């Protein structure tokens, strides 16, 4: 029975793999290098956001290469559902060319920023590689 069980288990694993998102290294993490959590930024002046990533590489969208992905910046929104394409709108910015920084111009007020890695198909990895969610104030 043991070989048969092993074969069934392998089938289950393979089936699961095709249905789920790309695996990420367990020690991968991303972070916002700038601005700092709690930063107060001058209104009417675009500010730079640095994307940090450790133990994983950046690849443009459409490029399926092991242990890589591209950054998504979530603005004033929570994490999108796992296993699905990350929305593309003003709250979910894609950096599909492999950018590792951007300039943002946000209206006065309090805003949250969070990075989320996506694979070549814009789907969050398993486990998701996501930064801490920070809050900045524009005034
Ligand atoms: Cu994307």
Task: Explain this structure.
The chain has 139 residues and is mainly β. The chain has a single domain (22-138), classed as Immunoglobulin-like (Sandwich). The chain has one helix at residues 2-19, and strands at residues 29-34, 40-41, 47-54, 57-58, 68-75, 92-94, 101-104, 109-118, 134-138. The strands form 2 sheets. Strands 2, 4, 5, 6, 8 and 9 form a 6-stranded mixed beta sheet that branches. A 3-stranded antiparallel beta sheet has the order 1-3-7, with no helix packed on it. The longest helix is centred in the N-terminal third of the chain and has 18 residues, at 2-19. It is elongated, with a radius of gyration of 18 Å. The model is unreliable at 4-19 (pLDDT under 50). Copper (II) ion (CU) binds next to strand 5. Residues 61, 70, 72, 86, 94, 96, 118, 122 line the site of copper (II) ion.
